[in-house]
Amino acid sequence: MSALPEAYGAALERAMAHATDWLASVPSRSVRPASDADQVASSLLSSLPDEATDAADVVDELAALAEPGLMAIQSGRFYGWVMGGTLPAAMAADWLVSAWDQNAGLRFATPAAAAIEESAAAWLLELLDLPRGSDVGFTTGATTANFAGLAAGRQYLMDEAGWDLADLGLTGAPRITTFAGRERHAAVDLALRYLGLGACVPVDTDHQGRILPDALADAMDEQPGPSLVCLQAGNLHSGAFDPMSEAIAVAHDREAWVHVDGAFGLWAAVSPHLRGRLAGVEEADSWATDAHKTLNVPYDCGLAIVSRPEALRRAFSIHTSYLIATETGLGDPFDKVPELSRRARGIPVWAALRQLGRSGVIAMVDRLAANARALAEGLAGIPGVEILNDVVFTQVSVAFGSDDRTHRVTQRLMAEGIVWMSGSSWRGREILRISVSNWSTDAGDVAASIAAVRGAAEAEPEA
């Protein structure tokens, strides 16, 4: 009889114990890691041992080595880099994904993974009110989701121009020009680099980073021809949304493909209170977002949504004798992402949506936005503090007078570890950037965070 269950039992029990201990420590522990990467590395074995080690002992050793270098990203007082926490059902589902060990590329080979992901995709389109029948690909994150959406756009434009991209490649191909706001996220530039499309044409934006439709029209008229337009749902610093209806109309009038980078901000579309800020977003051709950020599922879960499935599948699908392709119109999971082999990352999305339900998703998104407003209002009452953005979603950009003082306050906050708010620069100024992304952040966390900032500001007066 197989010893498979016994081989895993002790190690999984130890992992469960360590995970539970970690989660129990998060509300009260310092948010910042106690050790840096070099300090953690100094505790690791320099050479791989010759002898095997018991699996449960490996888990114990790993937990002890890692603990000093762990950032408490799941803390309600963590506001760095637009990183969400993890909902309980999504975390547990992610454990099952690892245990089941399904390669979620083929419907025929892993039918449960495919069916659950297809269910999650349908729920997402309904929640976000995007065109039903769109393809949804589960990617590694928002960067690859942008890559997938823009790849579909590149494919569509090449097909429209009569250029066989698969056979001929890009050499000698019609030039595709990409237009994006000056305050786009760098992930868009990275995706364009991956796709061989070169630098985009930067389009002027307003004081909150929103693209100006008239400036977009002028830029496109100066460089006619096949074009991609990248819009933004959620500016990295202000949280602002590009004027979707107007900008999409400009682009579509010039037969461009419109892609929306909505890494965290696309989720505003689920809320009746916030949806108006994204009016017309459903008229775009593709969208990218990250379920880890606002939906709070574990890492490794971007979403590429494309309204023209045939363009996405022509970009990524392959056909071989050993891959048993689906006979339905749904396509295989590998038709929609730049991977053949991948974990079933859509299952935690299904679990998160099933846990929350429609009303729960709306309430969570509204709560994140409300917490951002509460932080901004509380911080605005601290002498010398400036709130630099209109707080329209989950981002708050703060300055403390001079760049030098802002930098010192930010460094003190990170060193103290009561909260984690990352520094940045925006519109020529050093800022403290706050991203409210964690489902567990509550009024107590908000109050403690405001107090921590007040203390740091008082300890770092203007020079």
UniProtKB/TrEMBL annotation:
<keyword id="KW-0456">Lyase</keyword>
<keyword id="KW-0032">Aminotransferase</keyword>
<dbReference type="GO" id="GO:0008483">
    <property type="term" value="F:transaminase activity"/>
</dbReference>
<dbReference type="InterPro" id="IPR002129">
    <property type="entry name" value="PyrdxlP-dep_de-COase"/>
</dbReference>
<keyword id="KW-0808">Transferase</keyword>
<keyword id="KW-0210">Decarboxylase</keyword>
<dbReference type="Pfam" id="PF00282">
    <property type="entry name" value="Pyridoxal_deC"/>
</dbReference>
<protein>
    <submittedName>
        <fullName>Aminotransferase class V-fold PLP-dependent enzyme</fullName>
    </submittedName>
</protein>
<dbReference type="InterPro" id="IPR010977">
    <property type="entry name" value="Aromatic_deC"/>
</dbReference>
<keyword id="KW-0663">Pyridoxal phosphate</keyword>
